[in-house]
UniProtKB/TrEMBL annotation:
Biased composition (Acidic residues): 198-207
Family: Belongs to the PspA/Vipp/IM30 family.
Disordered, as annotated region: 132-207
Composition bias type Polar residues, residue spans: 156-168
Organism name: Gracilibacillus dipsosauri
Descriptive protein name: Phage shock protein A
């Protein structure tokens, strides 16, 4: 009758941690545990329902036998009043047989009721335990997800700061510096390659500029 408690005891007991240690995915294992527990509870509810139905059936038969005892008593009294002792005797004989039935049915019903009460208590305990495990499962899942996130972040940070990344960054920095040096060198070479004519041409341009400035100054005075 109580075999459906087996998986619940396994999960609630010390085996939970070892099972989680062996599991590749603790979250999936926890979900499976909860499904197993839910199935156990459904089986328990079915067993309790059958036991309660049996208890109610025995109670009805007990009530029927009790009512028949009362009925035969009333019939025997009525037969005595009518002066029919034979009929009264048969009513009392059947009453005695029904009283024995009442005794037997009372014992059976009391046993059934006791079993029903015990099963109800066990079922309530299972449901309470299930709720507690549900909360624990949610907490463990959150912790597992947090641990996974931290692991991913730590791996990402370690990959950013590892030697390969630093060396690669340094190589790119050196390459940019080479580009800058090449650009500076090309400018120097360009300046060195200017001819004397180019320099005199610049000088003449400067003379023209001076002459133009003087002209503007003279014209302003005349105005």
């Amino acid at each position: 009758m109580f075999q459906f408690f087996k998986r619940v005891k396994t999960i609630v007991g010390s085996e939970l941690n070892s099972l989680l240690d062996k599991a590749e995915d603790p979250v999936k294992m926890l979900d499976q545990f909860m499904r197993d527990m839910a199935e156990d509870i459904r089986e328990a509810e079915s067993a309790v329902a059958k036991q309660i139905a049996n208890e109610k059936m025995l109670k009805r038969r007990l009530d029927d036998a009790t009512a028949l005892v009362e009925k035969r008593q009333a019939q025997a009294e009525k037969a005595v009043e009518a002066g029919n002792d034979d009929l009264a005797r048969r009513a009392l004989e059947d009453k005695k047989a029904q009283e024995q039935q009442v005794t037997t049915m009372t014992e059976a019903w009391e046993r059934a009721k006791k079993d029903s009460d015990q099963l109800r208590v066990k079922l309530d305990e299972m449901k309470k335990e299930y709720q507690e495990m549900q909360l624990k499962k949610d907490s463990l899942k959150a912790r597992a997800e947090s641990a996974r996130t931290r692991t991913k972040m730590n791996r990402a940070m370690s990959s950013i700061g590892n030697d390969a990344s630093k060396q690669g960054f340094q190589r790119m920095e050196e390459k940019v510096m080479r580009f800058e040096a090449e650009a500076d060198t090309s400018e120097d070479l360009s300046a060195a390659s200017r001819s004397l004519d180019d320099e005199f041409e610049d000088l003449e341009k400067n003379d023209v500029d001076d002459e133009l400035a003087a002209l503007k100054k003279k014209m302003n005075k005349e105005e």
